[in-house]
Design brief:
Helices cover 63% and strands 0% of the residues. It has two domains: 32 residues, no CATH class; 41 residues, no CATH class. The protein is built from four helices and no strands.
């Protein structure tokens, strides 16, 4: 085999092998991705029963976990700098 082809094959394998092996490594108990803590933070929050019901119903319709839907909604609010507009009567 020519050196050029061998080098190209090695380059391809150097990309493909980590992609194939990474899910196996991540699935080991106790393995934590180095950026996982920076991506999400577990918190406790009180949400109204009706509000939670809305997101759980939406979860059933879409097949997306309700926690992800709530996170997506809040992320959209933060990204677009939405402000809550309340009027006291």
């Amino acid at each position: 085999m020519e050196n050029g082809k061998r080098g190209m094959i090695n380059d391809v394998f150097s990309i493909i092998i980590p992609i194939l092996i990474l899910p196996i490594i991540i699935s080991f108990p106790g393995y934590k991705h180095q950026f996982a803590k920076k991506l999400k933070k577990q918190i406790t929050i009180r949400i109204g029963v009706d509000t939670l019901g809305y997101f759980k119903d939406l979860s059933e319709e879409t097949g997306i976990p309700y926690q992800n839907l709530i996170d997506s909604y809040l992320s959209d609010c933060a990204y677009n700098h939405r402000k809550l507009q309340m009027k006291w009567m």
